[in-house]
């Protein structure tokens, strides 16, 4: 049996016909996020690149009590979302640092502020999980993501400072919560 925990995220709750939800990794609605990501990544990075990215971080990376998934739902459809996981699998080495992954907004729902709402909900959930710092990585084929992160105060981090970049062209960002 699938056990899920859903609650309205405090950052926005339900406004503009979009409900922000915090869910566990095994919530069936996560499938909407993953399907949207697969389509988006396939368009930007090709089928092999999309498959590699989704396999690199399976949904089990975002399990409670240190992980969570945020979804934006409109009329029963998942239209945006993102996920939190400990930055290091050995959480003790960087216990205060979360990594945000799987940040996505449906192409049909862009330019409505959903990316900002997802980020605010992820930040609130990360604080609730005890994190004080966030790292995230985006790709060079996602200029909208770079603009979003810069626009909400995330700062670029020199990739040379990471010995574990998810891929060579990854663009790292950091933010204090």
In short:
This protein is an alpha+beta fold and 177 residues long.
Tell me, briefly, the overall form. Answer: globular
The H-and-E topology, N to C, reads as: EEEHEEEHEHEE
Give the C-alpha Rg.
Answer: 15 Å
What is the structural class? alpha+beta
Q: Number of helical segments?
A: 3
- The helicity comes to 25-40%
Unreliable sequence segments: 1-12
Largest sheet: 9 strands, mixed
* Intertermini distance: 35 Å
Q: What would the average pLDDT be, to the nearest integer?
A: 87
In terms of DSSP E residues, the strand content is: 25-35%
Number of strands: 9
Structure description:
The protein is α+β, with helices and mostly antiparallel strands and 177 residues long. The protein has helices at residues 30-56, 114-128, 143-151, and strands at 7-8, 14-15, 18-23, 68-74, 77-86, 97-105, 133-138, 155-156, 171-176. Strands 1, 2, 3, 4, 5, 6, 7, 8 and 9 form a nine-stranded mixed beta sheet that branches. The longest helix has 27 residues, at 30-56. The protein is globular and about 40 Å long. Residues 1-12 have low confidence and may be disordered.
């Amino acid at each position: 049996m699938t056990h899920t925990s859903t609650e309205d995220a405090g950052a926005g709750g339900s406004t503009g016909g979009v409900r922000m939800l915090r869910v566990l990794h095994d919530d069936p609605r996560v499938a909407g996020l993953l399907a949207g990501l697969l389509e988006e990544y396939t368009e930007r990075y090709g089928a092999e690149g999309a498959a590699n990215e989704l396999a690199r971080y399976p949904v089990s990376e975002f399990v409670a009590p240190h992980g969570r998934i945020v979804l934006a739902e409109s009329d029963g459809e998942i239209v945006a979302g993102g996920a939190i996981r400990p930055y290091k699998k050995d959480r003790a080495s960087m216990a205060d640092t979360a990594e945000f992954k799987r940040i996505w907004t449906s192409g049909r729902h862009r330019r409505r502020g959903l990316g900002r709402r997802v980020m605010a909900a992820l930040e609130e959930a990360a604080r609730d999980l005890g994190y004080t710092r966030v790292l995230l990585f985006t790709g060079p084929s996602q200029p909208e993501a770079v603009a979003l992160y810069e626009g909400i105060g995330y700062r670029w981090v020199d990739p040379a400072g990471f010995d574990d970049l998810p891929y060579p062209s990854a663009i790292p960002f950091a933010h204090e919560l």
